[in-house]
Amino acid sequence: MSFSFHLATPVTRLAAWAIDKATVMAAWSVVSSLIALLGIFSEDLARGIMLVGFFVVSTGYGIALEWRWEGQTLGKRVMHLRVMDERGLPLRFSQVVVRNCLRAVDALPVAYLVGGVAALLGRKSQRLGDVAAATIVVHEAPVQTAGLAGLEVSKYNSLRGQQHVAARLRTVTPPALANAARQALLRREEFEPEARLALFRDLAGHFRRVAHLPPELEEGISDEQFVRNVVEVLFVSAPSQTKVTGRGGEPAAPAA
Questions:
Q1: Which percentage of the chain shows pLDDT scores above 90?
Q2: Number of other residues whose CB lies within 10 A of the CB of residue 252
């Protein structure tokens, strides 16, 4: 099974960079004012800390947010972009560090000329930092709530109520993958039995790797049911908006 992603365009990446740059400069104006106070004791000391401090703030911003927000910074969130492992695997911390540390090289000699040329020449639009870290930047279309049509919500879902698990799944699952999983459920009867088992085994395996579930939440659950549970928490944000049905799709009995 393979998934395809829409690579981010140079224009959207530039817009995200501009937002991040403005955020970093706003933070740096505060930090630099504090460091400047050290000039009372030693101007050389203050100047040295200024040089190191700007690198720490500008590089640390990207590392901290891309790791905390699973491949996104403030600018990438606004522009619906996300950094991913180029094989579709979960992003590793070492990859985040490498691509952000090499940002200084990509920015040479001015206005990200080196990184821009590398992205234009490469098949995956990768700047040098992305090539070294084996990452890509993709565009994520917002999930359309209209996509809930046809989704039958089960009465029994071990993930329902697990807010931290649901939040993690929503963070690490691109909309394209969420829609692919939902389409797989809607069209499951069209697949040959072996293909159906393999499809949901692969989907469930991926979601289990990225969600880090406690064992009790998936005990005794088939791959297909697990994918159904995941799709429900991905698409259904408010339980009160859902139509809850029994195991056989019959309306659930009202509470006594």
A1: 31
A2: 13
135 vs 208 pLDDT, higher one: 135
Residue 32's closest CA among 8, 49, 9?
49
- Per DSSP bridges, beta strands 153-154 and 244-245 are parallel
pTM flag (> 0.70): no
Cα distance between residue 139 and residue 62, in whole Å: 18
Q: How many Å separate Cα 185 from the centre of its chain?
A: 23
Residue 170 banded pLDDT, cuts 50, 70, 90: confident
The tokens describing 177, both together, are: 């993958």
The answer for residues whose C-beta is within 8 angstroms of residue 5's C-beta and 6 or more apart is: 84, 88, 136, 138, 139, 174, 176
Strand runs labelled E in the chain: 6-7, 81-85, 135-139, 153-154, 244-245
Q: What is the mean pLDDT of the chain?
A: 81
Contact 76, 82 (CB under 8 A): yes
pLDDT at site 150: 63
Tokens 């990225």 locate to 210
**Which ranges of 150-221 would DSSP assign to H, the alpha helix?**
163-172, 175-186, 193-211
Q: Please state the rounded mean pLDDT for residues 188-205.
A: 89
Cα–Cα distances in angstroms (integers) from residue 128 to residues 37, 106, 112, 136, in the given order: 37, 6, 11, 11
| Higher pLDDT among residues 109 and 23, named by residue | 23
- Cα–Cα distance, 134 to 123 (Å, whole number): 13
Residue type, 224: E
The predicted structure's pLDDT at residue 149: 58
Q: Which one, of 118, 121, 153, 141, lies nearest residue 244 by Cα?
A: 153
